[in-house]
Amino acid sequence: MIQTSLPDSSARIAVPASSPTTGLLLTGGGARAAYQVGVLEAIAHIRRGCGHGHGPNPFPIITGTSAGAINAAALACGADHFDLTVRQMAQIWSHLHTEHVYRADALSMLRSGARWLSLLSLGWALTRWRTMRPRSLLDNTPLGELLQTDLVPLARLPGLIAQGHLRALSVTASSYTSGEHVSFYETNAALQPWVRSQRRAIGGHISHAHLLASSAIPFIFPATALDIGTHVEYFGDGSMRQTAPLAPAIHLGSDRVLVIGAGRMQGARESAPTGVVASYPTIAQIAGHTLSNIFLDALALDVERAQRINATLALIPPEARVNSGLRPIDLLVIAPSQRLDAIAARHVAGLPRSMRALLGALGVTTDANDARGAGLASYLLFEPGYIRALMALGRKDTFAQRAEVVRFFQWDKAAAAPAASACEAACA
């Protein structure tokens, strides 16, 4: 792994008062979050091609959920050097291996994964053996170590906010204790924490524990304990029970939000492959379907809701809109144009043997043409082949929306086309 090293910067960034405030939303999805890094690479390239490469951080408000929370925090901690930070994130992601995120050696599989499967089959006979009750399918201790040493230098965050390089960072997590969805945020702005049905916001310093909590995929990674005022609550993945993914970016003051998804959000219904006879779904298929419901559905619904609100506001006279307290939010959504489980199916064989055995027991095969159980693997496949394929797809999808990117950021359209085309050829 490479060591993250960003130059110190004490200069305050001046942003024109007339400029709209841009927010960034990075969603969850375990290894799927590699796609986001490819998108950020392409955005950095387009920005340079438009002559804005030395400008301020394009995302003064950054929000993230699950693995997207880790990417959001990494980007925020390098807000004074956007291009350099994106390059370092890409370098780290492209060299990730499973053992950098969770323990996948044979002994660890016996301690966690195999024990979990034993309880699934023999739990009725082991209910009195408390020592046999694992907390999760996998042990993500290596991820905690990675966050501390390489990827997310959170000690820089207060200074970057004070210097004006960043306005706010927010990460979300779900409390197993209270059942609430909580958005943790760090900012210097005078902001009243928002409270809605089953969700609320808490201001303060964001720690690595918040990132582990937000990215703790249910059942797969263990819950994380966080201090909430005078008591402790246990938190898991922030995508659970998340009804309004856009809310933190909007509450923190964004006028426009770039949303980077981690799965297909639209497109024609895909039928089963010709000649394949439907069979009872495996545990892996059910788990992959469940995770897709957690990570993808709420985002698509919230984007549709925001678009409907924008359309409604456009019908209201400007003078009436001012008094309503409502405002339109410009949205740009970049999401995978291909099924990530199909890509994962081609790379399952790259997992460590012990992990392949564990997933095989759940119904995941190493057949590159069999994507039925690969949905689950797509969240756990932290191996270079799969990660680099997702990053390449992120770059490709972003360049395909180059005109929308330029319009969204209000960059020089004339300078964008040739530079982006050159990079498209290089990244193909």
Characterize the structure shown.
It contains 17 helices and ten strands. By secondary structure, the protein is of the alpha/beta class. Helix 1 (34-49) packs antiparallel against helix 3 (82-94), helix 1 packs across helix 17 and helix 16 crosses helix 17 (413-427). The model is unreliable at 7-15, 267-271 and 413-423 (pLDDT under 50).
Please count the helical segments. Answer: 17
Helix content: 40-55%
SSE series: EHEHHHHHHEEEEHEEHEHHEHHHHHH
**Radius of gyration, taken over Cα atoms and rounded to an integer in Å:** 22 Å
Tell me the total number of β-strands.
10
Q: Return residue spans where pLDDT drops below 50 for at least 5 consecutive residues.
A: 7-15, 267-271, 413-423
Shape: globular
- The separation of the N and C termini measures 26 Å
Q: Please outline the major beta sheet.
A: 10 strands, mixed
Mean residue pLDDT: 83
Strand content: 5-15%
The secondary-structure class comes to alpha/beta
